[in-house]
Design brief:
It contains 14 helices and 25 strands. By secondary structure, the chain is an alpha+beta fold. The longest helix is centred in the middle third of the chain and has 16 residues. It binds uridine-diphosphate-N-acetylgalactosamine and manganese (II) ion.
Length: 500
């Protein structure tokens, strides 16, 4: 029933050693049945829903060196908890694993299932993106559904997803992704008001669904939530729409980036993305990837992200490059076909996406500067030092590389670096520390709003009227004084009329 496995102490050494095999506690996984039961986590409104006339689905699972027990638990949970007459097939793509149990023993095991399970062993390492394309090309059902190889689906998970695709073939729909503990395999439910976003690094991120979207969706907790992005691993999509929309970018390697790419593309080219609260699938989230990245981890990830940025983000790609300057130096490869796709599909702009779909994005639709924020006289720049919310905002010698010195001054008056905003402390008086604070989501809080005077270089707190001063390695609010060089800021690329 989804409870944790207790690893007996005599297995402790083995547990630690074998954690590295898959970056989860494989010994705990082995102590649990591959056919374990799970509670029905659905809310009453979801349980009351009835579905009929649903289309059939081809489920596609790609894997590279997956653990035996997590892979089989994925399969058993799908077969046990899906109406089998809706399952056309399960397609498994083995992305050149080198573990012997994934060859003949797996070929033999999958024959026991009451539905067709196809297993293809790829002759070369393709990466998850191209492996999924091999799978989708084989699919016979009108709906594709992708899963990672270490998930467990729960009661009633499939029908709501198929229902949305049937309702509108341009809806791409994901379940709520619950957490299967990487430590003890306990099934832990996630919030039902979380959606997908992304940051300046072009990492996918979970954020709380804003009020705006909860109002749009209405009071019914069994209605889907529209989400700016999907996590990427688990979603259902009309097969023809998948191809009409340009399937995946075959130029992407190993892992990463494809989730934001398909998210931007879906929204910008006439589709939409949803999370269905009646569908819950548990996934083993890992802190590290267990497998190799042929070509080098950072290189591959930057390569994929740069392709997404170049093709889909228009000039907003600069936010990514400012934050991750080394990505400018990777070769993103030939993107002609993807640019053509965008033209052919007559997709909307990234500005439209930010304004309409994701106004809460850490990346502002309207801004007046992007890059360094410098005190000219000292060549010192504002620097987050990689600190977190609540900590002091800092200063250091300008290095011109962006990264921790990458800031934007937004049209709303925030001085922000990714999702952190400069914030005046609550202490009144002449001086006060400037801290990093999570930026407001629905709009900036008063603590975060500054007016920039291009002539004097002052950044003036709109409410308190004091100025940001760079003192040594820190920022302080001080009484404004045009003669004070520590208040004379130069904002990279500043333009009063703003961007874009
Ligand atoms: C998330 C997604 C994942 C994918 C990834 C970005 C969820 C739950 N997971 O990362 O599906 O979108 O973000 O790319 O949303 N694999 C291969 N070949 C490879 C590498 C991986 O087949 O070269 C398989 C792997 O065995 C797994 C799947 O691809 O079944 C996803 O990989 P992951 O589980 O390491 O990714 P995850 O969950 O960290
Ligand atoms: Mn995964």
């Amino acid at each position: 029933m989804g409870t944790a496995a207790e690893v007996p102490s005599h297995l402790n050494d083995e547990k630690d050693k074998r954690f590295l095999e898959n970056q989860f506690n494989v010994v705990a996984s082995e102590l649990i049945s591959v056919n374990r039961s799970l509670p029905d986590y659905r809310n009453p409104q979801c349980k009351a829903k009835k579905f009929s006339g649903l289309p059939k689905v081809s489920i596609i699972i790609v894997f590279h060196n997956e653990a035996w027990t997590t892979l089989l638990r994925t399969l058993h949970s799908v077969v046990n908890r899906s109406p089998n007459d809706l399952l056309e097939e399960i397609i498994m793509i083995d992305d050149l694993s080198d573990r012997s149990y994934l060859t003949k023993p797996l070929d033999a095991y999958i024959k026991r299932f009451p539905i067709p399970v196809h297993l293809v062993h790829l002759p070369e390492r393709s990466g998850l993106i191209r492996a999924r394309l091999t799978g989708s090309a084989m699919a016979k059902a009108p709906v594709l559904l992708f899963l990672d190889a270490h998930v467990e689906v729960t009661e009633g998970w499939l029908e709501p997803l198929l229902d949305r695709v049937k309702e509108d073939r341009k809806i791409v729909v994901a379940p709520i992704i619950d957490v299967i503990s990487d430590d003890n395999f306990e099934y832990v439910t996630a919030s039902d008001t979380t959606w997908g976003g992304f940051n300046w690094h072009l990492n996918f991120r979970w954020y709380t669904v804003p009020e705006r979207e909860l109002r749009r969706r209405g009071g019914d907790k069994s209605s889907p939530i529209q989400t700016p992005t999907i996590a990427g691993g688990l979603f259902a999509m009309d097969k023809q729409f998948f191809y009409d929309l340009g399937s995946y970018d075959e130029g992407m390697q190993v892992w990463g980036g494809e989730n934001l790419e398909i998210s931007f593309r879906a929204w910008m080219c006439g589709g939409s993305l949803e999370i269905h609260p009646c569908s819950r699938v548990g996934h083993v989230f890992r802190k590290q990837t267990p497998y190799t990245f042929p070509g080098g981890t950072a290189k591959v990830i930057h390569h994929n992200a740069a392709r997404t940025a170049e093709v889909w983000m228009d000039n907003y790609k600069e936010f990514f490059y400012k934050m991750v300057p080394s990505a400018r130096r990777v070769d993103a490869g030939d993107m002609t076909a993807r640019h053509q796709l965008r033209t052919q599909l007559e997709c909307k702009s990234f500005k439209w996406y930010l304004e309409t779909v994701y106004p809460e994005a850490p990346l502002p639709a309207h801004y007046k500067s992007l890059g360094f924020v410098m005190i000219e006289s000292e060549k010192k720049c504002m620097d987050t030092h990689g600190r977190k919310k609540g900590e002091l905002a800092g200063m250091s010698g300008c290095h011109g590389q962006g990264g921790n010195q990458a800031w934007t001054y937004t049209a709303k008056g925030e001085v922000r670096s990714d999702d952190l905003c400069l914030s005046v402390g609550s202490t009144l008086g002449l001086s006060g520390a400037v801290r990093l604070d999570k930026c407001g989501v629905a709009g900036p809080s008063q603590k975060h709003v500054f007016t920039y005077d291009k002539e004097t270089g002052q950044l003036i707190h709109s409410k308190g009227g004091r100025c940001i001063s760079g003192i040594g390695d820190r920022l302080e609010m001080r009484t404004c004084d045009t003669g004070d060089d520590s208040q004379r800021w130069n904002l990279e690329g500043f333009r009063e009329e703003g961007y874009p």
